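On clarity, I found the account of how folds are encoded harder to follow than it need be. Since the whole study asks how a given chain folds, the encoding of that fold should be made plain. The format is easy to grasp once an entry is in front of the reader. For illustration, here is how one protein appears when written out as sequence plus structure tokens.
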Amino acid sequence: MRLILVSVAVLTLLGACSNGEKTARYLIDPPVTGGSVPNRLGTAELKDVSLPEYAAAGEVSWQTADGAVRSNTKELWADNPQRAVTQSLARAISDVSGATVIAEPWPLAEPPRRKIEVRVEQALARADGIYRLSGRYFVADSGAGGANQARSFDISVPLADDKPATIARAQSQAVGQLARQIAQLAGPGRSIRTSSAPVPDINDIFSQPLPPLEGS
């Protein structure tokens, strides 16, 4: 009888753990706000956004008053956070500027003029009631005389509370603000001119047809 009761308890516990309605999943979906900005990027490939480990995890995280970063196994992101941020950022930059910004790998036959890399240092709902998204971004222009950008960003969005849904909205807003900043090539930093034409890729060299033999 005792064995039966234990088995029933285990099955009940497993059933509760597997109940999908008890697990909440949140989207990263930047809103389209404000007017459009000039297209300063043309075509650009966005590399996978680099996130801190806590922000790249599947759980929505926040900071408590003791300074610890905490999370709940039942409050999850709806997609892999790195993929979601990268895809959302690329779409938001394109929407706000009209540029063709696509997350890597580049799918078009014509290569992109520029490459964008974003390195996030902090992406956190902090204990002071602010969602902070900070780090650096880089825009590489391989054309001779092109302007390469190395700039920083530090975006703050007020939080009404520390509920996961509120955090998800704040992160989406922060990604949208970052998209506008990158589209305008704005923020503290510097611009560095490309001094020479890029070195041809060895695969490109050997993919070209060979010249005809003399006398053929």
Summary: The chain is about 30% helix and 30% strand. The longest strand covers residues 114-125.
